[in-house]
Design a protein that fits this description.
Elements (H helix, E strand, L loop, with lengths): L1 H26 L6 H10 L5 H6 L3 E6 L5 E7 L5 E6 L14 H5 L3 E5 L18 H15 L5 E7 L1 H9 L9 E4 L5 H11 L4 H19 L8 H5 L6 E6 L8 H10 L5 E6 L7 H5 L1 H15 L1
Parallel strand pairs: 3-4, 3-5, 5-6, 6-7, 7-8
Antiparallel strand pairs: 1-2, 2-4
Length: 303
Amino acid sequence: MIYIFAFLLLLILFSQYLILFITYKYLFPNKVSLEESLKIQIESKETDEKKFYELKKNQFELGNENGDKLTGFYIKGKSKKTIIFCHGVSWTRNGMLKYLDGFLKESWNIILYDHRGCGNSYEALPSYGYYEKKDLDSIYNFAKEIFPKSNYFALYGESMGASTILQYSELNKEIKFVITICPFSNLKKLISYHLSTVKLPKFIHFYFLFFFRIYFYIIAKFDIDKVDPENSIHKNKIPLFLAHGTNDSLIPDFMSKEIFEKRKNFTKTEFFSGENSEHTPYIYLEHKTEIEKRIWKFIHEID
């Protein structure tokens, strides 16, 4: 009997260690500095070094609702239209440079900023959109101040930034459209997917998710049950463009497909499937011409 008890105790201790380890991976990803992210993208030809340094960038710092510092830069255009870009977890605003060309060509006002805990913004743990959406609201209000003649605001995000935008859409119905590259639809569903890739039985998922919710709340002060981008975007009719790679192993493409299928019949929603492409930036770089064509057709149809 004592051996059975000892075995069960060891099993529980090991499972708790595993849950804490995975929680740590989500909350303490390997962060990249602004300088590093720019260097990586220049070397991978995501960004043209000369074009980057020729951009007329205006650096800014502002406090969010808690007074924490958010940093970024903006580019003034001649249009009354403004686009705000949101990058992925552990990355920086430089990760969004590859998407600027069309908006620069059409002279939009542009804002790129670092999420909480990224780049030069304030130190904090990622919350996968739970707190990031509030920071985005601070950026939106800042955009209205610096571009007072702008009467048209749109959002563009990738990965966690895309899911942040979907969650924010519930808070701001003035947004004209949303473009998302490889978003996740629900954080618990994403964690469950990752558990399934290591062949953990389904019944164990409930046990793991129960403790994930506790540890995330204790360590990062947010409830994973409330990180639900899909639910947020279904609460409004903001036009939505989704793009996802069929071979995305980080965030599976069925998440974008589910959003598209549930939304396509009641408001303007489009989906681009990147055949054989992995997570961003691969889907965008491998299908850039087609994605850009589809995105700008989508934008001009809204106009």
